[in-house]
Amino acid sequence: MTEPDRLSHLDDEGRARMIDVGAKAVTRRVAVAGGRLETRADVIELVRGDDLPKADVLATARIAGIAAAKRTSELIPLAHLLPLDSVTVEFELGDTFVDIRATVAVTAKTGVEMEALTAVAVAGLTLHDMIKAVDAACVLTGIRLLSKTGGKSDVGTEASMAGIVLVSSTRAAAGTRADTTGPVIAAWLEERGLTPVVRVVPDAGIAAAIAEAAAEHPAILLTTGGTGVSPTDRTPEATRAILDRELPGVAEAIRAAGRDAVPTAALSRALAGLAGRTIVVNLPGSSGGVRDGLAVLAELLPHLRDQLGGGDHA
What we know:
Number of helices: 11
């Protein structure tokens, strides 16, 4: 076996071992994994309405996934015991499936890919257990690593072509109001060849959501909502914490686009800037304001991405 082909968990005599990471640097490491539970459309509606015999299906699966990530070293024999910084497990309901996504972060000498994969697997198995009474034939599939960062080799072309959308709305996160901005932004990203990932979070959770999204290093990170002067509007503060460089002209152009029709657009505290190579822009919370902001970005985004890729100013 040549050196590049050597399996890291085997010693020179082919025996299993735990890798010695003592000489590695301590860095911030983030891993994102995904999977899918395939079922019937009527089952998805039961999950959506929380009408299954076993209630709180998604909440139970989320807690199971988080708990599993924390116990990965007990489940995977050669995995290291790690003091995890954070674990998030999210679900997206389709017509006949539930997409599962886990993001795990740690500040340590080794990565958290196995923790993210374990979280997805156990969350998916818990979903299976919760719905098997109505669909014993449901299938858990597609468990895979989407991206990892912070180690010697980063992985994840999906992350570099992703456009993450964070909707800051307490009511939409609670399901008492429809999200009208996320779908608009998602369609706009798809038109530009980016894979949209929409996450709806309560206002109080926006700081953690922005930090987690930035750690995934997407091509673009767009937020909507939380940019005004209400006591709960904290999106600009959370955004400034992750920016390396601000782009004040972009934020001002978006404000100007909405001021003629909506004078209160002048009250927006929205920011724009760069977090590494990720373009970060705060958009308003209304669908009209989002469309105005996206019209501004449509003119700027090609040149901005070219510049980040090393293009000339010509």
